[in-house]
Amino acid sequence: MKKGALLSKIYLFLILLFFYAPIVYVCFFSFNDSKSLSHFTGFSLQWYEKMFRDRTIMEAIYYTVIIAIIATVVSTIVGTITAIGMSKSRKLIKESIEQVNNLPMLNPEIVTAIGFMLFFTSLKIELGFMTLLLAHIAFCIPYVILSVMPKLRQLDDNLAEAALDLGCTPLQALTKVIIPQIKPGIVAGALVAFTMSFDDFVISLFTTGPGINNISIYVYSNVKRINPTINALSTIIVVVITIVLVLVNVIPMIKDRRGKKRNEKIMESSIS
């Protein structure tokens, strides 16, 4: 048993090393004094300086962040409302919508990208910022629905009716009873939507127009030549995402601990 446990730990370590070693490698060489990606000649921040001075990179970052934020907000609202509506629908309608919702995730991204491009061009819509944003919203909504639906299945069907019986309006029942109960699913769906939008390349490439590039398109256009500013850009993205993930996981833990302490104090005061 001990030998098996040791082998499983070694196997887990190798998997983690395989995933995270390239990230550490890129972050390390983002501080290299030279353009070399194999020999570290000295510590320098010149590539970060060049990155912030490069207008093309800053525009790519701007478009990536603004599209990801708008797509996340819109897809989270639409996806949550759709999931709630599906939970109250008939079985046939619910299953039909679920099958349609799974299509964008089961389809190869290249097929979805070409479909979006043909759709926009057939309507004679000029490819650019708006088409890129609409495409991101469209493919983010299914991920939000998929994240919210399990929480709705766990929800007691009588909660909304009880809230209405106690005097709540339908809007109050939605905002004060249903949404707080499914909040973890909504947050998870929003995080997935933001990640998918921020990271997308194939759909973005087919639905964007001239002068509108996100980070993934910029990196692809520079991948065949040595450009250490990409290492600096990647490092900043890794740091920002790590901070966001830590905050998302730590803040609920702090709130739970504070809630437990308050409950303990209330119990102690009631006993005394």
Show the helix and strand layout.
Blueprint: H1 2-29, H2 46-53, H3 55-87, H4 91-106, H5 109-122, H6 129-154, H7 158-165, H8 170-181, H9 183-199, H10 202-207, H11 215-222, H12 229-271
Helix pairs in contact: 1-12, 2-12, 3-6, 3-9, 4-6, 6-9, 7-8
Give the tags.
272 residues, mainly alpha, MetI-like fold, globular
Cα-to-Cα separation, first versus last residue: 51 Å
Broad shape: globular
Number of helices: 12
What fold name stands as the CATH topology?
Answer: MetI-like fold
Class computed from helices, strands and strand pairing: mainly alpha
Radius of gyration: 24 Å
Name the average pLDDT: 84
The name of the CATH architecture is Orthogonal Bundle
Helicity level = over 70%
% residues in beta strands:
under 5%
For the sheet with most strands, the description reads: none
Q: What is the name of the CATH superfamily?
A: MetI-like
Element order: H for helix, E for strand:
HHHHHHHHHHHH
Explain what you see.
- The protein is 81% helix and 0% strand.
- It is mainly α and 272 residues long.
- The protein has a single domain (34-240), classed as Orthogonal Bundle (MetI-like fold).
- Helix 1 crosses helix 12 (229-271).
- The longest helix is centred in the last third of the chain and has 43 residues, at 229-271.
- The radius of gyration is 24 Å and the shape is globular.
- The protein starts with a helix and ends with a helix.
- The model has no long low-confidence stretch (mean pLDDT 84).
